[in-house]
Write a structure and sequence with these properties.
The structure holds 2 protein chains of 2 kinds. By secondary structure, chain A is an alpha+beta fold. Chain A folds into 3 domains: 322 residues, no CATH class; 77 residues, Rossmann fold (3-Layer(aba) Sandwich); 190 residues, no CATH class. Helices cover 52% and strands 7% of the residues of chain A. In chain A, helix 3 runs antiparallel to helix 5. The C terminus of chain A is likely disordered. Chain B is mostly helical. Chain B has one domain: ABC transporter involved in vitamin B12 uptake, BtuC (Orthogonal Bundle). The chains are: A alpha+beta, B mainly alpha.
């Protein structure tokens, strides 16, 4: 029995018990379903994409008010040519609600997405409050008294007037939504969404439009909230502003966080916990305190403090861990035969591909780069050498679009790239690695590398949700595997699906014993297991950059990552360049032996004795990837 | 609208704006030093105003019990940390968890001051230590968490404090006596003494804060922490002290705002939240970083509020909070490249 079987069994059990449940339980379950829908959107937003909203209740309100107005207003029914009370009006209300919600969410997202992450939640607080006051003050929406007389839903002639029948619809919609979200996360776009939380700069350099993805996730969460509001309005048959105020918005977020903001089922768990607690706390807290009022906010707040301080991942991971002792792992999905992926066409050898002219970067009074010129022709290898703080990283950022030069121009394949984002550089075929390799520590090696191939896939969100992307997904994963093998990690390929926690920060969530890993049917390489973070990080990053372009050269015997080769080992690197299908790749690495620096014509810095001393006593590492995976501060000159 | 009404509205707006300016100062201070977006800032306003009302009415403010419980909790936390071998700064713990609460209890339970200024002082002594104690219990264990986690904790704390406010003070609002009953007639416009007190206090307090940050070594240490936490720590500035101090200042500023606003308007247990959010709108205008722009933004918010109250009083809050959208749009257009949040 694996986890999927448990889920199916639970759904079947719920469905079988449904006709026999008491009226009160059914109502409670309806609310749990409605809240879970909103919380699932917040899980996508908060736990997966690293954004937060306190204004989801306002989106629920938009969905509810839209259908309330549409199904009761004489104006709409007459202009659509429908009889008043027509069964089609709620569907018009749904369309209206989704359209308005989508537009508002897009607008809010668009004005905050470029700013630091905390502006979006602040904007949603303001927005949630505004909308609450707006609902209460618009006469055609009934003001503070609200709108009544909302008809029941009718689906294919079946009336959903009773809570019991509507509850079935609510849970069907919820389960469908969870299925679609699960599919979305398990796809090319899903990898991009997961990178939004902690790898935006890296994802952008791999061609992901991170700003666009952020807006889309925000709109998705808002649409789920509006859908919940639509169902809510037809369950209550009455709407007023109270259930859509900021407090509810905050409660929705609590549901997502307490349940486990990184897990879709955490949304259902959190909604259940909060709904039940609220139900009972509202009864006995006022008796306990001897005063009337909504004191459950005190308990919820304290609960949140404890959860965030002690179980930062929420309750679901703890439950899932306990359950995993008894359950078999879910077998890997069967994918159809892969389709062919586009590769970046090679520029003819000798053509100038990258051209930097008088690139100057100032940080306030500090001049990091002063009028630097660089020409890179197809087939050439360049190394940029300098001591700590010489401005190497800054220059890399200038020529890959991560930052703008203060003065000067950068041309890529003859195009002026002034002010273009790094994904525009990526679109022209430039791949880059970072000094601090920027792996997504909680994703598998395969996912990390497959993200590099993002730009070479085409299938979007809808295709992913409906599982229409499988052939392309198979191709992307196959490409990732190939690149991993190319970079010398082929021997460990069996372990690649294991999701090794490369960052090693989240100790509790690591797959722990080798025994359990073996039970999952894979023998993991020691180096890919946690506890040895980062030994292969450089290789993985290099494979990612290669997957981005679709490099095809013969596999090498020595397990040297492409990036290290390019930066260091001359002959191998030039061999790759000659064979190169690559338009251009730039790799940022620590460098090899000082003697080789001399060969490249860079002088030592004798004025900085500690560098000299270090360099004299150092031996060249067998492969530079050893020093990869270190924090940024350890960058610059090589250590050891 | 004639000129007279415009002047009246402007006066109203400036007075409210002055209070928002104080809150915005506190928010920028706390955010820049500790990265906490301190949503419960407004709760200090309500606590300050309602505690003052309770003391003036001869009752014991419920916030005193909150203070004593938090102080006991903080001492337990510090003792636990010491047992686990972590460095504990007992001197600052003594100040915030023993000296201030003891003084507050003495003032509220034994002395029961009758003079208005002494009551105000007692309120300040009561509210100010709440800041560092809340910081130690709720935020310090998460010092390395992301801004988003800290924001969620702040919102959770807002829920707790509003609930406690309802429990302590009930659902009825309070209004306190004015600090000054004088009325000035400036060319036909009546200026109340209280509004002069509000604006004057804001100016004096911000001047004091300016002097504190520019002239004192502690203030400079706070600024250094705000600019670069690691660098400040390397220079020997204890970052925990910076957290204590910024939260103490925030609590004190909140309490002062409460004292200032209570004679002008009836304060309810949840009034502070909306005021704090308006402070946020102002702080966001300043990018959560610039004190002078945030203060100017606060006056703008106050003016916008009073004028929209005249034209469309029902939609007053909508208009004020919608101001955040063009501000964010403007900020967004200024930035072009992807930034890493975490």
């Amino acid at each position: 029995m694996n986890r999927r079987h448990v889920v199916i069994a639970a759904i079947v059990a719920l469905a079988a018990a449904w006709p026999f449940l008491g009226e009160f339980s059914v109502t409670l379950l309806c609310y749990i379903g409605l809240y879970s829908m909103v919380a699932a959107g917040l899980v996508m937003l908060t736990g997966v994409a690293g954004m937060t909203s306190f204004g989801q209740a306002a989106f629920v309100g938009l969905g509810a008010y839209a259908t309330a107005w549409a199904s009761t207003s004489a104006l709409l029914s007459s202009s659509l040519g429908l009889a008043a009370g027509s069964a089609l009006l709620p569907w018009a209300g749904l369309a209206l609600g989704l359209a308005i919600t989508g537009a508002v969410a897009w607008g809010l997202g668009a004005v905050t997405l470029r700013l630091s992450g905390h502006y979006l939640p602040l904007a949603t607080i303001a927005w949630g409050l505004s909308l609450y006051y707006l609902f209460g003050n618009l006469d055609f929406l009934g003001g503070h008294t609200g709108l009544g007389g909302i008809p029941a839903l009718t689906v294919f002639g079946v009336s959903l007037a009773s809570t019991r029948s509507l509850g079935l619809a609510i849970w069907a919609v919820l389960l469908l939504a969870l299925w679609a979200l699960h599919n979305l996360l398990d796809s090319r776009e899903g990898r991009a969404i997961r990178a939004l939380k902690s790898g935006r700069v890296m994802a952008e350099s791999m061609g992901v439009n991170t700003a666009g993805q952020r807006v889309k996730v925000f709109v998705l969460a808002a649409l789920l909230a509006a859908l919940s509001g639509w169902l809510y309005a037809h369950m209550q048959r009455f709407v007023n502003p109270t259930p859509f105020n900021l407090n509810l918005g905050i409660e929705y977020l609590f549901m997502a966080v307490i349940g486990g903001s990184g897990h879709l089922w955490g949304a259902v768990l959190g909604a259940t916990v909060i709904t039940l607690m609220k139900q009972y706390l509202q009864d006995w807290l006022p008796t306990l305190l001897g005063a009337s009022g909504s004191f459950e906010t005190i308990v919820f707040g304290l609960l949140m403090l404890i959860v965030l301080q002690r179980f930062a991942d929420g309750l679901w991971p703890a439950i899932a861990r306990a359950a995993n002792r008894w359950l078999k792992p879910v077998p890997p999905p069967r994918l159809p035969p892969p389709v062919a992926l586009p590769t970046t066409a090679a520029a003819p050898a000798g053509q100038v591909v990258l051209e930097a002219r008088a690139v100057t970067k100032r940080f306030g009074g500090l001049v990091a780069n002063n009028a630097v010129d660089l020409d890179v022709k197809a087939g050439e290898i360049h190394a940029l050498i300098g001591p700590n703080g010489a401005g190497k990283s800054t220059f890399f950022n200038m020529i890959s679009g991560v930052d703008d030069p203060t003065e000067g121009r950068v041309h890529l394949l003859g195009r002026d790239m002034g002010g273009r984002p790094s994904r525009a550089f990526a679109a022209l075929g430039l791949g880059r690695t970072f000094q601090h390799v920027r792996l997504l520590g909680t994703r598998s090696v395969l996912d990390n590398v497959a993200l590099g191939a993002h730009r070479r896939g085409r299938r979007g969100w809808l295709a992913a949700m409906l599982r229409l992307d499988r052939a392309e997904e198979a191709a992307l994963l196959a490409e990732a595997r190939r690149q991993i093998e190319r970079c010398g990690l082929g021997a460990q390929a069996a372990a690649l699906d294991l999701a090794p926690r490369l960052a090693g920060r989240d100790a509790a969530a690591r797959p722990r014993r080798g025994g359990r890993a073996a039970r999952r049917g894979a023998a993991p390489d020691r180096a890919l297991r946690p506890g040895r973070p980062g030994r292969h990080a450089g290789c993985i990053a290099a494979a990612r950059a290669a997957a981005h372009r679709g490099d095809r050269t013969r596999a090498r015997r020595t397990p040297v990552p492409a990036a290290a080769r390019r930066a260091g080992r001359g002959p191998a690197a030039s061999r790759e360049a000659r064979a190169g299908t690559a338009a251009l790749a730039i790799a940022q690495r620590g460098l090899g032996h000082p003697r080789r620096r001399a060969r490249h014509g860079v002088r030592h810095e004798p004025r900085r004795p500690h560098h000299g001393a270090r360099l004299r006593h150092r031996h060249r590492p067998r492969h530079a990837a050893r020093s990869a995976g270190r924090p940024e501060s350890a960058g610059g000159l090589p250590r050891r | 609208m004639d000129f007279q009404i415009a002047l009246l509205l402007a006066q109203d707006g400036v007075v409210n704006g002055a209070v928002y300016a104080l809150l915005a100062l506190a928010l920028v201070l706390v955010f820049s030093v500790t990265r906490v977006i301190f949503v419960p800032q407004g709760e200090f306003v309500a606590f300050g105003a309602l505690s003052m009302a309770a003391i003036a009415g001869g009752r014991t403010p419920g916030t005193l019990w909150l203070l004593l419980v938090l102080a006991a909790l903080a001492i337990v936390v510090e003792a636990w940390r010491a047992r686990r071998g972590l460095a504990v700064d007992w001197r600052s713990t003594l100040v915030w968890a023993v000296a201030f609460p003891a003084l507050a209890a003495l003032l509220a339970l034994v002395v029961k001051p009758t003079a208005q200024w002494a009551q105000a002082l007692a309120t300040l002594v009561l509210i100010t230590p709440l800041g560092p104690l809340l910081y130690r219990i709720a935020f310090r264990p998460l010092a390395d968490a992301t801004v988003l986690s800290l924001l969620i904790v702040a919102v959770a704390m807002h829920g707790v404090l509003v609930g406690l406010g309802l429990y302590f003070f009930g659902a009825e609002g309070s209004r306190t006596a004015s600090f000054s009953d004088s009325r000035l007639d400036v060319s036909g416009i009546v200026v109340t003494g209280q509004s002069l007190v509000v604006v004057g206090t804001t100016l004096v307090l911000s001047a004091l804060l300016f002097a504190f940050f520019e002239r004192t070594i502690v203030g400079k240490a706070l600024r250094a922490t705000a600019i670069n936490r690691v660098g400040a720590r390397l220079m020997g500035i204890p970052t925990a002290l910076a957290g204590d101090l910024s939260f103490a200042l925030a609590a004190m500023i909140g309490a002062v705002s409460g004292l200032l606003i209570a004679p002008i308007t009836t304060v309810y247990y949840d009034t502070g939240f909306l005021m704090g959010l308006k402070g946020f709108v102002a702080a966001i205008i300043g990018g959560l970083a610039s004190y002078p722009i945030a203060m100017a933004g606060a006056v703008l918010v106050g003016l916008l509020e009073s004028f929209s109250a005249f034209w469309a009083s029902a939609l007053k809050e909508v208009i004020v909070f919608t101001l955040i959208i063009p501000v964010l749009l403007w900020r967004s257009l200024k930035s072009r490249h992807v930034e890493e949040d975490e």
